[in-house]
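Letters spell out the chain; the tokens describe the backbone. To illustrate:

===
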Amino acid sequence: MTRQRVGGTALRSRRDFLCYNAYKSYILEIAMRSTRSMVISMRLPAESGKRLKRMASRHGWTPSDASARLVEEGLRRSEFGFIDFRDSPAGRQACIQGSTLAVWEVMLLFLSYKKNVSAVAAHLKWPKVKVQAAVNYAAAFPEEINAAMAENDATNFEKLKRMLPQAIEFVSKKEAKN
């Protein structure tokens, strides 16, 4: 199935690529080495520093990388309503507050409903503003969302079965008759 792209296909700037990619963290590290960055020193309470180091260690990041990611996520939260960031098996993802859905999952629905915000809101039983928040975020960070949707498209039942050996494929009776 060919997936439509959200936003433009080309990077708007190196900064957009640098900021955050929840799915391939090594891309961020490569981009940081090859683009300009700004050094900002800050003082943290000792306990916050310990928590930051624990988080960095858990993700395999440096404390500096973890703090840069957290600052970027905080800036995005302040710029986009209803957006939050969570750890998932796929890495850190932009999600919709008050739900279990990542932005890219809302965008799959948005595209399947022919980009109709009202239809997606009705499907999810959400206010339209939450769906629009996902659309706004995806428009601002299309590479991040497109990468997540592409990764989802590349996953088939055989790959899933390798990760979850107990998985059983379900085929609806309606689909089986066709």
Observations:
- Confidence is low (pLDDT under 50) at residues 8-34.
- Strands lie at 83-88, 91-96.
- Residues 108 and 149 are 7 Å apart (CA to CA).
- The radius of gyration is 19 Å.
